[in-house]
Write a structure and sequence with these properties.
382 residues, alpha/beta, Rossmann fold, Dihydrodipicolinate Reductase, domain 2, 2 domains, six-stranded parallel sheet, 33% helix
Length: 382
Amino acid sequence: MEKLRMAVIGVGRRANAHLPVIAVMKDIFELVGVCDIDAERAREVAERYKTAWFSSVYDLFEKAKPDVVDIIVPADGHHAVAKAAAEAKVHMLVETPIAITLPCADLMIQAAQEAGVKLEVAENVWRFPQQRMYKVIADSGVIGDVVRTYCVYTTGGYHAMNIIRVLAGAEAVEAMGKTGYWEIPLVTDHAGRRITSESWIMGIITFENGVIGIHEGSNTYSSVLRRNAPRFYRVDGAKGFAVNDDLFLAEGGEVKRYQMRYLTADSAPDRIVVDTDPPLEWENPFKRYSLSWGHLAVASELYSIYRAVVEDKEPEYGAIQARKDQELSIAIRESARKGSPVKLPLTELTEVERGIHESFARRYGCDPLEVEKLILKPYPKV
């Protein structure tokens, strides 16, 4: 099996989810380097994974000569680093969101297309085993035609839009949003971030096939303040619905409950089964790596860019789909700002994006599209 030379750009907190999986997938990747503007951090991670380290992406491209890079810098820097990678003729997997605004995403997409390199985005929600099983359920027709999809207090923004869009199975045509902000006593979330004000959002999305998507979320969802609030993914059909690990079907005038069974083989994830008649099943395609359930989404992202490069095909998800996730998230916030629905697709820069660009310029001293000035900027750690 052909191996690709892989390098990681950005070795902060989020890289801890990628690097162990890259190390396990050594039959298809050779980790040839890590890069971070924090040289000491880059050196420490390089020593742990026995690879080279760099503090400049240009040195990484010149000396390590990667075939593909995994870009895990903060979102503010995605478009700048991706453009540099494209100009170096390096394929890339980019963490979410694809970019902070649609013009930044378009810059990345255009750079990749002009350079003839593959661009995948590491959107993981639809790749979670449970959500893969939701797609099996929806596609099987056992719940009838899908009518609604939900993402409530499980994740937010582009992540929530991802799973809502995938299960809706059509293009969004309208978004409505409502936001609220409240001061709260100090809490910390799962990542240790200190929160003193709650930012809440509600979105309702209409799709061209009539499906309605519903999202509710808050920056406090993983803190002690909201941790025990009801949270769920859900897909409703005309004959039943799936919520969390349960499937409910209307059968003979009664409701029958089926539970998702997570099966293992040799202590590794094997498959998810729902004992309907006939049974529904999602099988783990990465059994050979003996990864945990939680690592399977990252393996899927990495394998997608691998296949795209080796087989010269489009990535499994890709930049255009990731752009639609961010577009929908922006549209909901723009609707909340305006107090009225927003039609999709967006055709001009929104005021939400204009505010993001202005905030970016104040923080970094230049417009976000002046990428040559941004490539060596230090970004907030993630």
